[in-house]
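BUG: 3D viewer hangs when loading the predicted structure for this chain

Environment: internal workstation, default settings.
Expected: structure renders.
Actual: progress bar stalls at 90%.

Input used:
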Amino acid sequence: MEKGEHLQQAVIREVKEETGYVVKVNELHSVREAFFQDKKHHALIITFFAEITGGEMNILDPDQDIEEVKWVSTQTFQKLNPKLYHMLKLNQQTQAFYDFEGNRTIG
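Structure tokens produced before the viewer hung:
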């Protein structure tokens, strides 16, 4: 988040910067928390449901962390990243949730 920016504004800006898409933020999906031991930092990971309202795919990533942007169905996402799919509780979620994910390492 940038100074003076509220959370939904940050989501819209980050999606536009990193994917080229303009989105409408619909609702909160989850708040997750983890300690990243390798980098020695504490993270709050706030996830929203959103829909694309404009723009076109264009990766703008000066750090070159993003290799590809692809919109897929929930079923395809489950196959591509089963661990994250399970962590996000996409198969069972009916309302927003909080989860402490403990100590994590990057990689």
